Amino acid sequence: MNKLIVLVISLVIFTSCEKSSPLGDYNEIYKNTVDSLNVTPTVFSIHYKFNMVGRCQQDNNGYYHLPLIEGENQTLHRFGAYTTNTDIYGLPTQVIWLCNAYWEYNGNTVPIVNGTSYADPNVDSVFCMMAPVFEMQNDTITIYGQAWFEEGDVILKDSINIIFK
Question: Which of 95, 98, 111 is closest to 146 using CA atoms?
Answer without folding.
Answer: 95
